[in-house]
């Protein structure tokens, strides 16, 4: 496999970048392993020093990092800068969050014994990362993991090598800055690893790799989990989602519709936590649909380098073609497109903002994840049927519920099968609370106290108090 970048706005190939040779791959794994053996003994303050320096390096390369996102995967430039800024914010917040999450949990402390849980590092870890948020996805795993004392090998997606190389430069600059401030500081074991897909099973099996995380499709997740399981390795999977966005009869409909547009089209619709199924109670269906369709129609589609662009191209031709087929198959099954519905005549890998209604239960738009700016809208009778529809999916990542009634909100929170439920807000990731899902959306958590502890050894320690020796 060659790392190959194509401009999705034009479809023109940009360049190719070769993967590591077997010799280079072995040297990198050994390098991270040796670095982690020293890093695990560093203090929290030393680890935080590197993370803080990383934030400064990211900020220093902000515009270049953003431009790579626009060029290689079509992210609108304003959103690209926002992704870099979010990574900088993570580096600012993470040291304090890690200190709280990784401090000993004291279970018992009395005259007989002291019992506590200590969160020890696991070792060196492999991260297999996606193309849709190349920096944020990598760093929301790597930063907490490094603060826990682990080492990290980050395998970037094959279509975004330019941004990945610049991110690796940021790691190197942060290591140099940390050593300038503290000459005794060992190198942070964090490197981009341009490993071909065909070699990943062998890396997971390597005794120097203690665990693996993957952000990607459920098919890839099953394979990685299977390989990791054969070798009894810790695994965290952040997979797909078909998040419900439920609008109850008492909701602020205009606000819900405006947020629905934003929730469906974040990153041009290419986000696992983007709202994808809009489940609207009959009493407010027509009002919601009128606002929502207008909002989707008014979105500005265009060159991702243009400051005014809201929707860029789909990141790759295969993803665009897959999305187009899902929509076409859904329409053939009986769904109607109120806006959009076809990419015919569009340059590059663009797909227009689309709203589908009257969707049969067995159509792709009802059963599958649609990765792009396509919204599936469903009319339901009441809250009970809304919850049934929300749970009628193999996925369980996030959900958004819109209501003014706290009791109805609680009913939805308790009944919806998802890792995250937001009320009167769109679902977002945040360093302060856990991110992850259930069912085919994956296993394990990133961020928050649970995420900071995910790749640690929760070591139970009991110290018996000996009687004082006679004097």
From TrEMBL:
Pfam families: Aldedh
Source organism, top-level taxon: Bacteria
Gene Ontology molecular function, alphabetical: succinate-semialdehyde dehydrogenase (NAD+) activity
Domain Aldehyde dehydrogenase: 3-461
Transmembrane segments: none
UniProt KW keywords: Oxidoreductase
Listed name of the protein: Aldehyde dehydrogenase family protein
Organism annotation: Gemmatimonas groenlandica
